Amino acid sequence: MNKNLKTEKYFHYKISPIKIKIKEGKAKMINEKINNCCCGGKEKFHKIENNNTCPVCKTSGVKVKNITVRHLVVNTLTELVGDTDYYICMNEECDIVYYNPESNVKFNKKQVKMPVWFKKDANPKYACYCSKVTEEQVINAVIKDGAKTVKDIIEITGAMKNSQCEKNNPLGKCCHKIIQEAIDKGLSMK
Ligand SMILES: [Zn+2]
């Protein structure tokens, strides 16, 4: 058996020593990558983790642009916002909305002008922040008016008319996705 292995190795080597070298090089590269993940990468990983977790509930947050935070934090606290970007806490149970791990500035639900739709007890629950269309209105449009698509919702409710999601939506993203989720919710209730 040993003899066979030796012969095989020799055989490959004979045919293509370069190929073997490439293979060895690749294995070395992969090993290095793995090593980086476990040792060198560790520090970086922790850094990212520390940088985006909510200071209260420790859930990973989603980055939100400064312009969005500046626009949605109550006027009396605008000065505190500064000019950096923030994270938003996605945990529905947590009272924290925006936080900046570097400056330690954070804003809770009461310090934000709009109820954040995915937070517990958000009232009203907006599906479209720009045109102030609620999740309830979208669901009603689905159940009562037979709306099926975002386009239908736009026509029936007037959602997304004055799209300025960057300033109005707490995530600073287009309301399209939240509307779709509300439609799905409505369709499932039918
Ligand atoms: Zn939180």
Structure notes:
The protein is α+β, with helices and mostly antiparallel strands and about 190 residues long. The chain folds into 3 domains: about 1-50; about 55-120, N-terminal domain of TfIIb, CATH 2.20.25.270; about 125-190, BFD-like [2Fe-2S]-binding domain (Arc Repressor Mutant, subunit A), CATH 1.10.10. The chain has helices at about 1-15, 15-50, 65-70, 80, 135-145, 150-155, 165-170, 175-190, and strands at about 60-65, 85-90, 95-100, 105-110, 125-130, 135. The strands form 2 sheets. The protein has a 4-stranded antiparallel β-sheet. A two-stranded antiparallel sheet has the order 5-6. The longest helix has about 35 residues, at about 15-50. The radius of gyration is 26 Å and the shape is elongated. The structure holds zinc ion.
What key attributes describe this structure?
3 domains; N-terminal domain of TfIIb; Arc Repressor Mutant, subunit A; four-stranded antiparallel beta sheet; 6 strands; alpha+beta; Znf_CopZ; BFD-like_2Fe2S-bd_dom
Describe, in short, the structure shown.
This is BFD-like [2Fe-2S] binding domain. By secondary structure, the chain is α+β, with helices and mostly antiparallel strands.
Radius of gyration (Å): 26 Å
Q: Helix proportion of residues, in percent?
A: 40-55%
Tally of individual helices: 8
**By CATH's scheme, which homologous superfamily of the largest domain applies?**
BFD-like [2Fe-2S]-binding domain
Give the distinct bound molecules. zinc ion
Distance between the termini: 69 Å
Strand order of the largest sheet: 1-2-3-4
Structural class: alpha+beta
Largest sheet: 4 strands, antiparallel
Write the H/E string, N to C: HHEHHEEEEEHHHH
Question: What global shape is seen?
Answer: elongated
- Provide the β-strand percentage band: 5-15%
Extract low-pLDDT stretches.
5-13, 30-49
| Average residue pLDDT | 81
Oligomeric form: single chain
Pfam families: Fer2_BFD (PF04324), zf_CopZ (PF18423)
Domain CopZ zinc binding: 51-113
Domain BFD-like [2Fe-2S]-binding: 128-180
InterPro entries: BFD-like_2Fe2S-bd_dom, BFD-like_2Fe2S-bd_dom_sf, Znf_CopZ
